[in-house]
Every structure is written in C-alpha cells, then in structure tokens.
Amino acid sequence: MVKSKKPEKQRKKIKEMPLHQRKKIVSAHLSKELRDEFKRRSLPVRKGDTVKIVRGSFKSKSGKVSKVDLRKGFVYIEKIVRKKANGSEVQVPIHASNLIITSLERADEKRLKKR
C-alpha cells in the first residue's frame, strides 16, 4: 500500500487513506489453530474478537475487542484500562500489530469464507 521509503510520506499516506482501505491496516495475526483452519496468516480485527496482547506493558493479557478505531488505527480491549489522575478508568488504545487473534466473532459468513 505505502510505496515510499520516506517515513514522512508513509505517515501522510496512511493519514489521508480512506476508511475502507484503513481496515486492512488494523489487521492482526491469527493464532496457530485459526491459521490452520482458515489457511490465512492475518485478518482485520473486529468488535467481538478475542485477542491476546504480545507486546507492550499489557503483554500476555487477553480479552474481547470492545471497539476498533479506524481513524486512529487502534483497538480497545475490555478490561485493559488505566486510571486517570481524577480516579476514573479509561480504556488503553493498542495497535493491532501488537495483537494475536485467538478466536473470531463468527456472525459474519463472508468473513469466515475460505478464499
């Protein structure tokens, strides 16, 4: 998708990309079991998928995806929160490249169709 070697141009291209193309950027690798089942390495993350975090301060924690923000390119996971200065809790945004999908939301037939 991004053809330039310059980071500035790469960031600009992603920022100006339409939402239907940004969906591919918010993709994560599949677990080994799902990879064998669907014969694919990765899929776009959707609300309802169960994911495991493999990088960052929340490494090895897993949970259900509660929100996918295509504009910012982040995924929000239930129970992955931090406290603000006023004591309220807020969900932590995590980039999809730091996740592994462990189980899929199986409501959409087209998504699960083998290609």
Summarize the structure.
The chain is an alpha+beta fold. Helices cover 23% and strands 36% of the residues.
Set down the secondary structure blueprint.
Blueprint: H1 7-15, H2 19-25, E1 27-30, H3 32-38, E2 42-44, E3 50-53, E4 62-69, E5 74-83, E6 89-95, E7 99-103, H4 109-112
Tags for this model:
115 residues, 4 helices, 7-stranded mixed β-sheet, alpha+beta
Give the uncertain stretches in residue-range form. Answer: none
Number of contiguous helices: 4
Q: What is the total tally of β strands?
A: 7
Total discrete domains: 1
Binned, the helix content reads 10-25%
CATH C-level class: Mainly Beta
Which geometry do the CA atoms define? globular
Counting helices, strands and paired strands, the structural category is alpha+beta
Tell me what portion of residues adopts beta-strand conformation. Answer: 35-45%
Q: End-to-end span in angstroms?
A: 21 Å
Order of helices and strands: HHEHEEEEEEH
- The CATH architecture assignment turns out to be Roll
How large, in whole angstroms, is the Cα Rg?
Answer: 15 Å
According to CATH, the fold-level topology is SH3 type barrels
